[in-house]
Amino acid sequence: MALPFTLRAVDPGSRARRGVIETAHGAIDTPAFMTVGTRATVTGLDPRDLASVGAQVLLGNTYHLMLRPGVEVFRRVGGIHRFMGWSGPVLTDSGGYQIFSLSSDRTISERGARFRSYVDQRVHLLSPEKSIEMQTAIGSDVMMVLDVCIDSTSDEAHTRAAMERTHRWALRSLAARTNDAQALFAIVQGGVFPALRRESASFLTGHGFDGFAIGGLAVGDTRTEREDVTHFSAELLPADRPRYLMGVGTPPDLLQAMLAGVDMFDCILPTHLAWQGTAFTSTGRVKVTRADSGRSDTPLDARCDCATCTTSSRAYLHHLFKCGEPLGPRLLSLHNLHHYLTLMRDARSAIEAGSFASFARAKLDEIDRHEHGATKGIGKAVAS
Amino acid sequence: MALPFTLRAVDPGSRARRGVIETAHGAIDTPAFMTVGTRATVTGLDPRDLASVGAQVLLGNTYHLMLRPGVEVFRRVGGIHRFMGWSGPVLTDSGGYQIFSLSSDRTISERGARFRSYVDQRVHLLSPEKSIEMQTAIGSDVMMVLDVCIDSTSDEAHTRAAMERTHRWALRSLAARTNDAQALFAIVQGGVFPALRRESASFLTGHGFDGFAIGGLAVGDTRTEREDVTHFSAELLPADRPRYLMGVGTPPDLLQAMLAGVDMFDCILPTHLAWQGTAFTSTGRVKVTRADSGRSDTPLDARCDCATCTTSSRAYLHHLFKCGEPLGPRLLSLHNLHHYLTLMRDARSAIEAGSFASFARAKLDEIDRHEHGATKGIGKAVAS
Asked: Is the minimum CB–CB distance between B307 and chain A shorter than 8 Å?
């Protein structure tokens, strides 16, 4: 196995687990939230900023990086770590989701996906082999297989066809790997159909992958469907390998998935919402562009010790956003990432202490209370 | 006098001087370059970034800040230092230049300038008294009088009329000051006419201002005119008060003005050009958006020890600019400010060592060689 993964603790009241993944670029404490740096940059933040909020691992994207700057740049400088000045672990997504969501003028066949570049309009082929070749050049610590993404609302026949092609592509990806020092994760598909998810997990876990992702969620599914599939799928994955829920989600999504035993996450929400002027806080979301923020001399979150909350008032952040000043999104990005990474740190401590189920319940109740103004049940997650 | 200013050394080979201005928010080593933070932010940089490049003093702008966030915000939080989280000295420009350059629909009379806000289209009056009232609320360490700015190409009659009104407004500003802890600088006008500059300096230095600025340059004048007026005007100002050349300029402009005995500068060039993808380096300007930068794995400046040059290649910066990623302008802003502030630090050391004339000559020759590909004379500055 290319990727040492050690389980340190399992929560007695849920399936949550606390582990450590060792990579050539350092350890990843799990459950881990991976900061999204699609184009070899986390919008507006440099590696020192990322270290300051406690980011351990970044996520790059093969689709975007193959188009710009292009793979030759990574070959020349020896990989993404040197290119962007980040010395910690990097995971690269394969590009499957981007072909699904971004490419116009695309044709997907058994061979791979043919699409037109948004940079220079040239036609590219992204096949399982090509994706691995790119990720090898990018030099990520964890590579992902190219998968076939479809909408969660697709019918069972379409979902089965996409899943079966994903399986064939996964084996081609495994065969195409040339550098054993780079781990390779497979991606379980099967939409919202339990039988397909079971079949997908059963097939993929029979091969020598270093970890397993749950894909095909947050693409049209409801929150309940997402939680159901996550719980169901996570149980099907081997205990001794990391489990990665792709592209999910809000803090409640993360808490629910950790309860189900998921180890790794990525999501653009903390940075994406920051650029829109929305902050995650311990008392709910705050929209700094609203007029009431302009009159508030308190920090975004009085309980937060991030660099933004210790120096900037909501009124100052409001002013920056109203002026279109880039410091505004930057300060909110730092805060939102700190908020997410603090949640993960606190979650890991709670798992170590054996109190994660009650920790998650309290957090979920608190978020629900702040965002919906009432205490509701927190679903089957804790009860299961 | 509200503003202690101590001269520590005068260069034997030129008029360059090394001094220290003491403010309630810390010392300013002169000659000083003030980083421009027009709207209570230096585009994309936070106070820790500014400290990391060695910025000692920021410049805010009364015109922009009175329109947004508005003076009430500063009254409420107790000034700009708390508002933006910057604990060092701040100088505020009065808004005279912005009325000249930005306001449409403006009427300037003896009373002041009436103009329409670009934020909410409301009509505002900016008078000398109003500007001081605003600057008092903003809480800057050094305030500037409201002056009448005109184009450098204006004829002598118009230039005299603007100068005489500037003098009357300067006295009204002095009378309007309510907080002696905030210093107040007058602004010498008179365009490119030596007799008017002499008259302006003679009038203003007869009143109790804490320092004197040379205004009305970099608004249509040639480089030679600018240097001539700077040299001529600086000589007319008292040796025991700081001399501030407003809105100027390039590194050669700064070197020439320091040779003439100027102590303070501000200019948007280092940050403005950074946002356009241009870096100042020890071997001339570098445009990172050019294709050759995309193929270069060297830093912007091999002789620079800033955070950008120690972590990022030109190829990476090129990539960020091509992707429209905000980290690109941020990294270039950090580098360009570091470049300017290093020039000022080196200049101060050279004055202390009594070698500034030869230091400036070597720098000017080097810049000229890199930017124009040939060694030319460096003008009358050193010879005078």
From this structure: yes
* Spatial distance between the Cα atoms of B175 and B166, rounded to a whole number of angstroms: 14
Q: What is the dihedral of CA A119, A123, A127, A131, to 10 degrees?
A: -20
Out of B47, B77, B315, name the one closest to residue A313 (CB). B77
For residue range A88-143, list pLDDT tens digits in order.
Answer: 999 999 999 998 888 678 899 999 999 999 999 999 999 999 999 999 999 999 99
pLDDT of A371: 84
Residue B141 among the catalytic residues: no
Predicted confidence at residue A372, as pLDDT, reads 80
Judge whether A256 is closer than 8 Å to chain B, CB to CB: no
Model confidence over B69-116: pLDDT tens digits? 999 999 999 999 999 999 999 999 999 999 888 867 889 999 999 999
- From the CA of A383, how many Å to the nearest CA of chain B? 44
Long-range contacts of A118-127 (CB under 8 A, 24+ apart): A118/A67, A119/A67, A119/A68, A124/A66, A124/A67, A126/A62, A126/A63, A126/A66, A126/A95, A126/A99, A127/A172
State whether residue B315 sits within 8 Å of chain A by CB: yes
Contact B43 A325 (CB under 8 A): yes
Which helix (H) or strand (E) covers residue A243, if one does?
Answer: strand A243-245
Please tell me if residue B69 touches chain A, with a CB cutoff of 8 Å.
yes
- DSSP designation for B193: -
pLDDT of A379 reads: 40
**Length in residues, chain B:** 384
CA distance B226 to B215: 11
| Region B42-56 average pLDDT | 95
Point out the residues of chain A with pLDDT beneath 70.
1-2, 103, 374-384
Q: What is the DSSP track for B120-154?
A: T--EEEE-HHHHHHHHHHHT-SEEE-------TT-
Partner-chain contact A46 B322, CB within 8 Å: no
Question: CA-CA distances (angstroms) from residue A154 to A72, A177, A227, B233?
Answer: 37, 31, 18, 77
| The pLDDT of residue A377 | 41
- Average pLDDT value for residue range B16-38: 98
DSSP letter at B254 equals H
Q: Which of A11, A221, A253, A266 is catalytic?
A: A266
Of A39, A316, A325, the CB nearest to B83: A316
Cβ-nearest to B315 among A69, A312, A330: A69
Q: Is there a catalytic annotation at residue A266?
A: yes
pLDDT at B3 over 80: yes
The percentage of chain B sitting over the pLDDT mark of 90, rounded to a whole number, equals: 93
- Name the A residues in 91-120 with CB < 8 Å from any B CB: none
C-alpha A212/C-alpha A1 separation (Å) is: 13
Distance set, CA A298 to CA A311, B63, B66, B82, B98 (Å): 10, 26, 22, 12, 32
**A12: exposed, middle or buried (C-beta count within 10 Å: 0-12, 13-18, 19+)?**
exposed
- Chain A interface mutation, best of B66, B316, B332, highest count of A Cβ atoms under 10 Å: B316
